[in-house]
Design brief:
The protein has two domains: 2-38, no CATH class; 47-98. The protein has three helices and three strands; from the N terminus they run αβββαα. It has helices spanning 2-10, 37-65, 72-98, and strands at 14-19, 26-30, 33-35.
Length: 99
């Protein structure tokens, strides 16, 4: 975790005497804000991963929307797939917001 902590210390953040209740790493303070660099780093990583998934899902959704078949059975399959993607996107967005 040195790679997370070093730039932080160089940026003028102050290492506190307290530890993060979640991961046990030392807490830092900068501009009056106390935070855990490890948890923040993980959160950012997770958000980046989620954005990647979200982008791919949106791409697929676009693809499906742009190629709707005329045949009714096929159309139904298409729409069902689109519905699932939209459901997934909503779930991902909730996860992201609650993180
Ligand atoms: Zn932490």
């Amino acid at each position: 975790m040195r790679t997370v902590l070093m730039p932080l210390m160089l940026s003028g953040a102050k290492m506190l005497d307290k530890h993060c209740p979640r991961c046990g790493s030392p807490l830092f303070e900068k501009d009056g804000r106390v935070f855990c660099p490890i948890c923040e780093h993980r959160k950012k990583q997770r958000q980046a991963e989620m954005r990647g998934v979200e982008e791919r899902l949106l791409e697929k959704l676009n693809e499906l929307a742009n190629s709707l078949p005329d045949e009714i059975d096929e159309l139904e399959k298409h729409l069902r797939a689109m519905e699932k993607i939209i459901e997934l996107l909503e779930k991902y967005r909730k996860l992201e917001g609650g993180g």
